[in-house]
């Protein structure tokens, strides 16, 4: 596994790569990619960091692990490659954006455009074996991504964390709520959305309202 991370993140995260747990994780991931089909492709494992520089991060969205179907995952949570049909959770995200902000439902589900505006799209687990959801969980990725969240909380001010669903909400304790904003709701998956726990959360307009109050540029969702 290539563990070189974007230069802006290096001073904050490089030490993690030297720790025993990360060496074990890297060995596991390398073996998985050699012996099985895994996603995203190796060069995209750290894409969330490549597209969103550390000091430009304004919003953090936390997912669980990458899509495990062919050609879907591109290293950013909830995002898919251009031209790929939108998975149900992503479709519900776009529907809520339309309800909330009036912005038209987009053709592309590639969320690099959000990342480049300062939205860190962070999966807790950065890799997965094809067709086996959760197959790379509890191997060390969560330890690493928890450090990412804690480091952002410590080093930055006025970040907005969007925590969707039970798994993401468990990350609340990693964030200094005296310095940062947390918005929570149900997950955008059909199971949660159909129970009335997703639609109407207005997280996208609320995020922009908070950014405006802090004199930061709003996100073009």
Please give the structural blueprint:
Blueprint: H1 10-17, H2 20-35, E1 38-39, H3 47-50, E2 59-63, H4 88-101, H5 112-115, E3 119-123, E4 128-129, H6 141-155, E5 160-164, H7 165-169, E6 181-185, H8 190-193, H9 203-213
Parallel strand pairs: 2-3, 2-5, 5-6
Antiparallel strand pairs: 1-4
SSE order in H/E notation?
Answer: HHEHEHHEEHEHEHH
Shape descriptor reads globular
**pLDDT < 50 stretches:** none
Q: Record the strand order, biggest sheet.
A: 3-2-5-6
Strand-residue proportion = 5-15%
Distance between the termini: 32 Å
The rounded Rg comes to 17 Å
Protein name: Uracil-DNA glycosylase
Keywords: Cytoplasm, DNA damage, DNA repair, Glycosidase, Hydrolase
EC number: 3.2.2.27
Pfam families: UDG
Summarize the structure.
The protein is α/β, with parallel strands linked by helices and 221 residues long. It is built from nine helices and six strands, in the order ααβαβααββαβαβαα.
């Amino acid at each position: 596994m290539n563990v070189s991370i974007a230069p802006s993140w290096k001073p904050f995260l490089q030490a993690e790569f030297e720790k025993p747990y990360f060496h074990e994780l890297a060995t596991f991931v390398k073996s998985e990619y050699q012996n099985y089909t895994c996603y995203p492709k190796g060069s995209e494992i750290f894409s969330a960091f490549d597209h969103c520089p550390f000091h430009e991060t304004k919003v953090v969205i936390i997912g669980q692990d990458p899509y495990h179907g062919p050609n879907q995952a591109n290293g950013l949570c909830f995002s898919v490659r251009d031209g790929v049909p939108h998975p149900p959770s992503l479709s519900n995200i776009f529907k809520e954006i339309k309800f909330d902000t009036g912005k038209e439902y987009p053709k592309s589900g590639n969320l690099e455009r959000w990342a480049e505006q300062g939205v860190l799209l962070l999966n807790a687990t950065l890799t997965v074996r094809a067709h086996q959801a959760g197959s790379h969980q509890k191997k060390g990725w969560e330890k690493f991504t928890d450090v990412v969240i804690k480091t952002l909380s410590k080093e930055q001010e006025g970040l907005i964390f969007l925590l969707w669903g039970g798994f993401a909400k468990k990350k609340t304790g990693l964030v200094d709520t005296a310095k940062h904003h947390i918005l929570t709701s149900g997950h955008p998956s059909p199971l949660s959305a159909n129970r009335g726990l997703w639609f109407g959360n207005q997280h996208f307009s609320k995020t922009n309202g908070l950014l405006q109050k802090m004199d930061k540029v709003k996100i073009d969702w």
